[in-house]
Amino acid sequence: MSSQDNVNGQAYGFQSMTPIEPGKEGELRAYLEGLDIDESPFGKLPRTHMGRFVIVKDFYNDPSWGQKEEHLDLQYLIFTSNLDGDIDSYLDELCEVMAPEAREIWGRCVGCPENPKGAALKAYLKHNQIDCGFFYAAYGTATVPEVKAALRQRDQMIAFATRSQGLSPDELQEAFAAEFGA
């Protein structure tokens, strides 16, 4: 695996594909769909730009492609994450901080350690890692805190622009200096 295929600037793209134990697909889907987007487990990992789970039931087979039809023997869980920095320390954090969720998620996958956390879970995820092939990070040189700060600044500027409509140039300059310290 070429680590360069998973790096863009300071960001790393991680992807793993783990087979789901037969009969546990519905439980896993229900658990994932029940996660609260506002209280995402990825919120506990401050270096995460984005994290996603996808359950793949089977290959898409289009007869017009003229290829042999293929099927998966099992359904698979694909986990992707765009993160700041190196994968090893990120997985160390994920495997400790998300241990309760890991049991519910990867605990339903073939070959997952009986106690899915720490070094055992990290080894499992790395064993099932697949190259991104082509990884593009929207904020390749900006860290999560830098992106959040820029978004807060944007929101502050929008709010200021909305509040200051109709001010004279002198009032606008004074209000801008008071708001932004310029």
Characterize the main sheet. 4 strands, antiparallel
CATH topology name of the largest domain, in short, is Alpha-Beta Plaits
Looking at the structure, what is the overall shape?
elongated
* Main sheet: strand order: 1-2-4-3
What is the percentage of strand-forming residues? 15-25%
Low-confidence stretches: none
Could you state the order of secondary-structure elements as H and E? EEHEEHHHHH
Outline of the structure:
The protein has helices at residues 25-34, 87-97, 99-105, 118-127, 144-163, 169-180; strands at 7-8, 11-19, 48-56, 76-84. It is of the alpha+beta class. The chain has 2 domains: 3-127, Alpha-Beta Plaits; 144-180.
Descriptive account of the structure:
The structure is a single chain. By secondary structure, the protein is of the alpha+beta class. It has two domains: 3-127, Alpha-Beta Plaits (2-Layer Sandwich); 144-180. The protein has helices at residues 25-34, 87-97, 99-105, 118-127, 144-163, 169-180, and strands at residues 7-8, 11-19, 48-56, 76-84. The N and C termini lie far apart (49 Å).
Helix/strand layout:
Layout: E1 7-8, E2 11-19, H1 25-34, E3 48-56, E4 76-84, H2 87-97, H3 99-105, H4 118-127, H5 144-163, H6 169-180
Antiparallel strand pairs: 1-2, 2-4, 3-4
Helix pairs in contact: 2-4
